[in-house]
Design brief:
The chain is α/β, with parallel strands linked by helices. The protein has two domains: about 120 residues, Pdz3 Domain (Roll); about 210 residues, Rossmann fold. It is built from ten helices and 13 strands. It has a six-stranded mixed sheet, sandwiched between helices. It has a five-stranded antiparallel sheet with strand order 3-4-5-6-7. Strands 1-2 form a two-stranded antiparallel ribbon. Helix 3 crosses helix 10, helix 6 packs parallel to helix 7 and helix 9 crosses helix 10.
Length: about 350
């Protein structure tokens, strides 16, 4: 596939009619009906348009060129691309932007999803690699692959809401799809196991060992439905399953909960988490990361309380972190999850005596 900075010369024949009342310009034919050749030449600025759709800007309209701006909350911000990277080659296939970049003397390949409705029309029944070479942040991604990650995804009707602060003005449901696409792309080249995905409203469904192409199928088949959500039941069952069977790999468990936190019914989240903490054999064995989707004050208050007050209310260990949407939308799910796991490992775990 040619690079996007290719020079194109196009020769076409067309009838050109000036607007009513307009006089012909210099060199124009006096006969409006006479066909005249139109010569277009120079750079076709697909590169600038492509960069804009992905959320970054180059310092020139031809390659190689340096990234001088990345928009917060854009696909580029979620991909690992950094300001100062040199883009050597760029092309697009359907809704993926492929970049070959150079950073500090090393070369990498990056994929950026530019369409929140999906990554690719044709998903093979095999793992899709994140990059053709080393990822610019493989060391950080190792934190994810060293954990057993289970994803709890809110599919209640409130996740269909738009105009809730999601970049691109998409629904909360579709924004989650974009973020999960990026998470699957980022980790499946390095990960030796696939994710378990639980979709919940008043009830829940569990899909085990989900791959990228299966995620696409899930989003095609399942839509937000139900006025309420029961976050406590799938969380409790996931925790009990972990303590009953373990991961079999010795990896700590990270339970990622994507929800707006609204209209929650069922078991108290506080009680579920306190009980789980008392089954932990050591700090850091289990971590629950609540990522809020959308700007809901009530949801933020609920989830923030779980992060800061659980130990004071009887939990054995600190085991919860919470990311408000104001932080999550700027850097994306992959970056925030990496930071969450890193900080959870670094911080002391308070224990009730």
């Amino acid at each position: 596939m040619p690079t996007l900075s290719a020079i194109v010369i196009l020769l076409v024949s067309a009838r050109v009619s000036p607007p009513a009342g307009a006089s012909p310009g210099k060199g124009a034919s006096s006969s409006a009906s006479k066909p005249s050749p139109v010569l277009l030449h120079g750079y076709i600025d697909d590169l600038t348009a492509l960069c804009s759709s992905a959320g970054f800007r180059l310092d020139a309209n031809k390659l190689p060129s340096t990234v001088n701006k990345i928009s917060p909350g854009s696909p580029a911000a979620y991909s690992g691309l950094d300001e100062g990277d040199t883009v050597l080659q760029a092309n697009a296939e359907e809704n993926i932007v492929n970049l070959n970049i150079e950073r500090k003397g090393k070369r990498y390949s990056i994929k950026i999803a530019v369409n929140p409705r999906g990554l690719k029309r044709q998903c093979e029944a095999s793992k899709v690699p994140y990059s053709f070479g080393d990822s610019p942040f493989d060391k950080d991604l190792k934190l994810l692959t060293d954990s057993h990650i289970v994803i709890l995804l809110d599919r209640s009707l409130s996740m269909n809401d738009m105009h809730t602060g999601c970049p691109g003005d998409v629904s909360k449901w579709m924004w989650c799809k974009q973020q999960l696409d990026n998470l699957f792309l980022a980790t499946q080249r390095l990960q030796d196991e696939d994710f378990n995905l639980l979709l919940f409203n008043e009830t829940y469904q569990e899909r085990k060992n989900v791959r990228l192409f299966e995620l696409k199928e899930i989003y095609a088949q399942i839509k937000p439905l139900g006025l309420h959500k029961n976050i406590g039941r799938p969380l409790e069952d996931t925790l009990n399953d972990y303590f009953k069977r373990g991961t079999g790999s010795g990896k700590p468990a990270v339970i990622l909960v994507l929800t707006d936190g609204l209209e929650n019914i069922g078991p108290s989240l506080q009680d579920v988490l306190i009980e789980a903490s008392r089954k932990m054999r050591k700090p850091g064995e289990v971590h629950v990361a609540f990522m809020q989707i959308g700007d809901s004050i009530l949801g933020e208050e609920l989830l923030n309380d779980l992060e800061h007050n659980l130990v004071a209310k009887g939990a054995k260990y600190n085991m919860v972190t919470f990311k408000p949407f104001s932080e999550l939308r700027n850097r994306g799910l992959v970056h925030e999850l990496i930071d969450t796991i890193r900080n959870a490992k670094a911080r002391p775990s308070a224990r009730v005596q």
